[in-house]
Amino acid sequence: MKYIEIRQAFIDFFKSKQHEYVESSSLVPYNDPSLMFTNAGMNQFKDVFLGTDKRDYNRAVSIQKCLRAGGKHNDLENVGFTARHHTFFEMMGNFSFGDYFKKEAIAFAWEFLTKVLGIPEERLYVTVFTTDDEAAEIWEKEIGVPKEKIFRFGEKDNFWRMGKTGPCGPCSEIFYDHNPNGPKVSIDQDEDRFVEIWNLVFMQFFEDEDGKQTPLPKPSVDTGSGLERVAATMQGVTDNYQTDIFQPLIKKTCDLAGLPFDWLQLSQNKNQIGAVKVVADHARTAAFLMSEGVLPSNEGPGYVLRRIMRRAIRYARKLSTQTSIYPAVCEEVVNLMQAHYPILGEKKEFIVQAVRDEEKRFLLTLDKGSEILKDEILKLQKKQNNTLDGRTAFTLYDTYGFPFDLTELMAKEEGLTVDKVGFKEAMEAAKDKARSAQKSHNISSDEKHLGEWTQTIDKTEFLGYEKLRAESSCLALSDGSQSVETLTGSGCVAFKATPFYAEGGGQVADLGSIFDGKTKKKLGVVTDVKKMNDVFIHFVEMSEEITTGQVCDLQVEDLERQNTANNHSATHLLNGALKEVLGDHVNQAGSLVNSQKLRFDFSHNKPVSAKQLQDLEDRVNQQIAKATPVQAQVMAQKEAIDKGAVAMFGEKYGDEVRVLSMGEIVDGKPFSMELCGGTHVTNTAQIRLFKIVSETGVAAGVRRIEALTGDRAFQYLNEMANENLQLCEDMKVKKPKVDDAHFGGGLTQRVTDLQSKIKKLEQDLKKKASQSVSIDDILKQAEEKTLGGEKGLALITRIDVSDRNVLSEVADKIRDKASSVAMVLIGESEQGQPKPIIVAVSKSLKKLHAGKITKELCAIMEGKGGGRPDFAQGSVTNLDKLNSAKDKFYEILEQ
Description:
By secondary structure, this protein is α+β, with helices and mostly antiparallel strands. Helix 7 crosses helix 9 (270-291) and helix 7 runs antiparallel to helix 11 (326-337).
């Protein structure tokens, strides 16, 4: 039974038992910060089990995409060296939310395995929790499992908890015996022979912090059955990689590596079998993660993906140093699984290109890094030392992109271990250095000096919330590398108090000027402001001399500040609107606010639609129009959070925080309430106008909106309107009037009409191209052949047509004219581009399969393709092998 059939049978069975089919959730659980990846079928129903979410169904069935490659559930190191470990896998599951319980769950599982799949009962064993007499009795007395085949195990194996507190309960597992003729032993004594293929979790209790378990008012059921393991069971193999899930990927790997596709032969070479397994498994993981927008990076899900990909690329390189294997195998994953997961097909080009890019990046450093590692290993072996130091491992990670586990693996192959503690220490030291580093600001500054310098200066009093101009005395001066008493040119100044905002929270620093407090003569300009040790460091360009102790008049550039405030306040309103339009899962993931624009990054796992963007704009502009005062309060952090203030994830706050509230108050809560130390408008009306300019994806599960406010927004809209009017004039379209319902309708319709006209012209051109091809002349090239045991015409020829649709029309005309025909039509293309190929077979020729013919011919002419039994298509790149393709075509016809 093929794995696709097993998957569908599972869904159909539970749908027949009144279960709602629920699509797989994302591999990256954006709404659950406790998980990096979805690692079980119940993850998407977690809130339902906790009682914080309600669904309109109480029974569900799903096939959940899962990934285990980090944290508690980390199978990465085992992949390639066992029969059943995977990073990516599909978990079949059925769930009851307070509906049925043990009796029905057990009966459903047994019926599906023994009746639907037809697994012999004598090859199945079950386990229950030590004290779960109820489940044991159901298995023995109602299902009929012999008592000696029911095993009782403790908490480690047969008790489940959602967390330290919360729902919990006993488990019951079903095991399949791969060797029924073997000796009678307990199922926990031979894990290769007895394989768990079903796990039933009975959520029966609520466990508190003291470990007390109270029966739940509505017990629930969570089950899981690994598709890969069930496929191995149904296909009579003991290794998941021998199933039809992985065999096409392993064949692809072998073909590219120039290895014979022979499992027995591969198995005899530990390195080869391990490598092909790794490539096959990791190709699935990469394809699925990338289909959801995760890209290789140095943190979060992206880092795990990079580890997995680089592990696969390294193993692929061991199979062949001449051929690029991994991207092609990832593409094969897409081809095989896009029918059930359409997003793979939609993202195919993106996935393949991203894999190629990562392979290219890593291969540039793999050889150099490997040489360094080999040298270090040789040195250690000469010293009879078997531990690679952590600093070397960190250098390989930091400089050459070697994930730690890859270094560990390569060292292990040489019989060495790696100092993991030393690696972590080197990593932390680098992070500390990065945290303390400050950018250079128009001067060659010494960060170490500035850190020490600011420790000798009193804390700066910030006046900028109330003032844009203030007098203050100069406390200290620096030329960037040492303290000075006077300063001319570039340097740093610390004042007792300042109206200048220091860069922070996504907002850029204020710009402005410094004047002498007595003469009012301009002394210089402030180009940037940074905060260090509670001291505001003013980076300055002094045209006149400034001295320590001098009283200065500090003036912030008011228009820059106002525009920046407009943009910053608009980000708060946008954040509130995003939660209303997209959902509460939206969290700020970064921002940039200056006088020109605002940029707001937020967590969301798909593009924001045009309608949603319009909704966001409308909501923000409505809040601006309401002209509500902006309130700022300082309070204890806990009090602020309890009141519902939004804190930016990852941001550090003190015990006391500044809370900004703005927008209309509904049910006692303002439209926006956030912790923020930035400068803002005093009334939403000051923002005047909000206009979104772009929405894009910037990282896995992170979207970015860029927008304009105030004068810049008006300027943008005016330019767009003027361009629209000019286009109306150029295209002879009636210009919009003030009383029109929609101002751009005329132009839009004109563009639509032109597009329709162009489309019709293209169709006419295709029709003429089709008509220019003489069907009779082509049929003259046909040969009478035996076509799968029947007489008919065989044709393989080139046609001077580049459009694939025209080739299809020609094929249809030939089939209409010839009652029994098998043909191969190869079109033309631009130089260097693949040429289209069409294979068509009369439907009466049941023994011939156009799709299979296409695959074989494309393989010869270095292309790819496939399709239905009567019609298929593809592309080829090497027509020098056309004669070989013809020979193969005629050979297939005569079989």
